[in-house]
Amino acid sequence: MALLPRKKRRKDPLGGNSPGGAMVKFKEIGIFLVERRMGSSRRSFLTELARKKGFRVEEQMSESVTHVVSENNTGDEVLELLEKQNGICSTGFTAALVDITWFTESMGAGRPLELENCHRLQVKRISAAAVIGTPISPYACQRRTTLNNKNRLFTDALKILAENAELCESEGRYLAFTRASSILKSLPYNMTRMDDLQGIPSLGDHSRKVIKEILEDGICSEVENVIQNERYQTLKLFTSIFGVGVKTADKWYREGLRTLDELRASKIKLTKEQTAGLLYYEDLNVPVTRAEADLIGQIVEAAIHRFLPTAVITLTGGFRRGNESGHDVDFLITHPEEGKEEGLIYQVISWMATQGLILYDDITENSYQKWKNQEPEKFDHFTKCFSIFKLKREPICNLELSRPSNHDCLAVNEIGRKGLADRAGTTQHVTAAAAGDKDWKAVRVDLIIAPFGQYAYALLGWTGSRLFERDLRRYAKHFKHMNLNSHSLFDNEQNKLLAAATEEEIFAHLGLDYIPPHERNA
Ligand code: UTP
Ligand code: MN
């Protein structure tokens, strides 16, 4: 999945030559001409004129714009336009909204004139930003989103539309509904009327319509229709199987399948992952509790410390953001002495398997060196294991915490890099899973191995939420000309990687206020 829309980089946004080639005389002034009511040809003409006179005119709204110039628009209209078209209303937005008279007078004078009140456009509306006291950023990484969602009625509805868009492989609509839902989650008040939406960025017409209907009727007919829709229901069911994506679910749907029983009875060839997903379906669709996550944490830690006593294990993902439950448990593993972590995952998984703790595992080798910057759409390239744990219902107390014996190490070497046995789908487990009276629960666990130097980036990347991560990367690119991923931060201007030992340092590199994990629930 593409994390970032690829945008053309503007050349030297802060000065130097203007795109027309003329020298920029007034570097500190950045003009953005609003096309609405001005028209594109007049806008082009004025752009040329200003550039010839040494003014910097930006084609797009950006942080470096100081004067937003428009003709025959009110301040409210310009603000609304900027929010809609550019998602602007952020803390980064400090530009003055000015009338064309400032522009023409400045052109006449051959220099930027001081702004007077008569040049400024009046903004009448009371925005949500004013209620809150600060402007609301269209970037999730500049908002504080706790789990205390005051607008669940609206966010649940928008989430269903986002899900449906995703199942229709409509990335644009998925993002629009997800962003709208996310921004409402960050509001410190409960929305009761449409006026409460004023000044809130990232809300398109479609999302506004949904909110309006819910405010008026209590429900939204489009959402109700989606919930009743057979394709939506079936694809949601199939994609809730571990290892099944939208494309596969859609294929099965088109082949006429509608239920898990039909899928089980069909001749369809499943992958290893899907076989396990279907086998443990019921367990895997019961949310993992915090207590279960902590218990698994103890097991993982004990297993890892058998082989590498000073390794550091961190619970990440939704649980690190304070969630009381989750769909899986994510652990990040590192060692202060870089290199010590190599090979660890095989030893640990292999040993846990001998202890009967693993129902399924899929280890992916580190591919960072091979990859570098070639596939930015991939989340990351760490060595990791997507697994299914067999979690005993009674407390685990018989786990040996001693150092590994030679036998353990031999077993690891034997199985080693050829990949561990595929334990899912054995008769033993089919019977156990089907029996229903089992004393264990299947739980999805992700173990990610990060070299120490990349640990802070890995932690930030794996803590989520997904939208928070996406917006961090988008922000880095757009405002800082930096590439952020779960391995590193690359500064394109200085042409170098920026090291960071903590998440705080990464936020500082990006010029962002630090947002702690429990406020990243965007
Ligand atoms: P999860 O999918 O586990 O989500 O990914 P979650 O936020 O913990 O919520 P649950 O599990 O559904 O309750 C955790 C974070 O790790 C990143 C994503 O940014 C996500 O927010 N991630 C996930 C990766 O970097 N790579 C992956 O392959 C998967
Ligand atoms: Mn998770």
Q: Structural class of the helices, strands and pairings?
A: alpha/beta
Q: How confident overall, as mean pLDDT?
A: 87
Number of strands: 14
**Unreliable runs:** 1-15, 400-432
Number of domains: 5
Name given to the CATH homologous superfamily of the largest domain: Beta Polymerase, domain 2
CATH class annotation of the largest domain: Alpha Beta
Task: Tell me the strand percentage band.
Answer: 5-15%
Q: How does the major sheet shape up? A: 5 strands, mixed
Overall shape: it is: globular
Count the DSSP helices. 22
Distance between the termini: 19 Å
Descriptive report:
There is one protein chain. The protein is α/β, with parallel strands linked by helices. It has five domains: 26-125, BRCT domain (Rossmann fold, 3-Layer(aba) Sandwich), CATH 3.40.50.10190; 140-227, DNA polymerase, domain 1 (Orthogonal Bundle), CATH 1.10.150.110; 229-279, DNA polymerase, domain 1 (Orthogonal Bundle), CATH 1.10.150; 288-453, Beta Polymerase, domain 2; 457-519, Beta Polymerase, domain 3, CATH 3.30.210. The protein contains 22 helices and 14 strands. β13 and β14 (496-497) form a beta hairpin. The protein starts with 29 loop residues before the first strand and ends in a 13-residue tail after the last helix. The structure holds uridine 5'-triphosphate and manganese (II) ion. Uridine 5'-triphosphate binds next to α15, α20 and α21.
